[in-house]
Amino acid sequence: MLLVIVCIMTMPVVLEATQVNFTSSIYLQKRISLSRTQNMVFPKIVEGVGGTIYTYTGVGIDGQPGQNAIFVVSGEPNKTFYVSTSSVTMSDGAGHSMSVSIVIDPASPWAIGTGGSTTLNLKGRTTVSSSKITHPKGSYIGTGTITVNY
């Protein structure tokens, strides 16, 4: 008779572990905001006197100059931002209108100042017809939109 003895040997397996710490971080940027400090106003002119009128040069018939729209942009200091404006059409409410060209001052690129804010001037230009039929006397009002973002 043949006797077979099988011997099974087991050896404990030791798993070696290594541990390393890590960090996670996030920077929350200050939200950009915009506030208007002044609306755009063209100087007063006489009906029938046509030409190009600016908010930033010249004086009206009442001795008052025009005024630019002024905005304060606040946010992350030294951060570059972008500006866009809508088109603006002023109307007298009776079917007469004129478009306004917008120039942003200062010109791009725009950046928030070291103190966390900067000022933008929106300068306007419009062309008034010398025809009393095209542009009769009266108040012409329009609304525009300015958007800023990082």
Keywords:
single chain; 35% strand; 150 residues
Radius of gyration: 34 Å
Order of helices and strands: EEEEEEEEE
Mean pLDDT: 90
Number of strands: 9
Structural class: mainly beta
Q: Helix tally?
A: 0
Number of domains: 1
Report the CATH topology name: Immunoglobulin-like
Estimate percent helicity.
under 10%
Poorly predicted parts:
none
How far apart are the termini? Answer: 91 Å
CATH architecture: Sandwich
Give the percentage of residues in beta strands. Answer: 35-45%
Task: Describe the largest sheet.
Answer: 6 strands, antiparallel
Reading off the top of the CATH hierarchy, the class is best stated as: Mainly Beta
- Give the overall shape, derived from the CA principal axes: rod-shaped
How do the strands and helices of this protein lay out in sequence?
Blueprint: E1 33-38, E2 51-54, E3 69-74, E4 80-85, E5 88-91, E6 97-105, E7 110-111, E8 117-128, E9 146-149
Provide a brief overview of the structure.
The chain contains no helices and nine strands.
Structure description:
With 150 residues, the protein is mostly beta strands. The chain has a single domain (33-132, 139-149), classed as Immunoglobulin-like (Sandwich). It is 0% helix and 35% strand. It has strands spanning 33-38, 51-54, 69-74, 80-85, 88-91, 97-105, 110-111, 117-128, 146-149. Strands 1, 2, 3, 5, 6 and 8 form a six-stranded antiparallel beta sheet that branches. A three-stranded antiparallel beta sheet has the order 7-4-9, with no helix packed on it. β5 and β6 form a beta hairpin. It is rod-shaped, with a radius of gyration of 34 Å. The model has no long low-confidence stretch (mean pLDDT 90).
